[in-house]
Amino acid sequence: RAYDPAFAYELAVIIREGLEAMVHRQEDCFYYLTLYNENYPQPPMPAGAEEGIRKGMYLFRSAPEGLPVRVQLFGSGPILREVLRAQEVLAERFGVGAEVWSVTSYQQLRQEALECERWNRLHPDQQPRIPYVAQALEGHPGPIVAATDYITALPDMVARFVGRPMVPLGTDGYGLSDTRQALRRHFQVDAEHVAYAALWQLAQQGFVEPQVLTQASASLGIEVWS
């Protein structure tokens, strides 16, 4: 079971769950934890987050109040900090309320969603099961932007289960060496690109005017490639 913890408390929950599964419950499984070498402040665990950490995602920070236009932002590992900064950019500069989700395991989310899909397919006369990723998003409107240090195929693993438009942002490419800031800007997974992708999604659905994108690309320093 692959996990990508962003914070120390996520790591503690996952290690405890792994020990209980493999030692106490004697399940035939193994746990794969991805850690990083970037230092940053570690916040306290939000109340009620443990179940979501184990299942693959949980709401880390709600949107600022008083902003009716909403978008959902997914982040994993250190990129979650870029997503949190994007939340601030969207609120302060564009009046968009973003909710930030910490995704600890796309693999877990996809596996559970596939199990629900298989059960529904084989039991057409029963009440359909809803994947956890869709359940978690109930009551949280707006399109999704999912940013990761990995390739875009990783968040794309759950795209067809969320029931709404979703843009994955990842680091597709290789052979580059530079500062973290420069590489994140190059791969378009920094806060400015996450915020711009959210605005683009909202423009596609008519929640913001198209000219906002032109203004945003200039103010956020978004380079337009040919």
Subunit organisation of the chains: single chain
What is the tally of beta strands? 7
Widest sheet, order of strands: 3-5-4-6-7
Radius of gyration: 18 Å
Helicity range of the residues? Answer: 40-55%
Q: Give start-end ranges of low-pLDDT stretches.
A: none
- Which H/E pattern describes the elements? EHEHEEHEHHEHEHHH
β-strand amount: 5-15%
Structural class: alpha/beta
Kindly, what is the distance between the CA atoms of the first and last residues, rounded to a whole number of angstroms?
40 Å
Q: What value does the average pLDDT take?
A: 95
Name the overall outline: globular
The major sheet is characterized as: 5 strands, mixed
Task: Specify the number of helices.
Answer: 9
Question: How is this structure best described in words?
Answer:
- This protein is an alpha/beta fold.
- 42% of the residues lie in helices and 13% in strands.
- It contains nine helices and seven strands; from the N terminus they run βαβαββαβααβαβααα.
- α1 (8-24) links the parallel β1 and β2.
- α3 crosses α8 and α8 (191-204) runs antiparallel to α9.
- The longest helix has 17 residues, at 8-24.
- The radius of gyration is 18 Å and the shape is globular.
- The model has no long low-confidence stretch (mean pLDDT 95).
List the keywords:
single chain; 9 helices; globular; 42% helix; 7 strands; five-stranded mixed beta sheet; alpha/beta; 226 residues
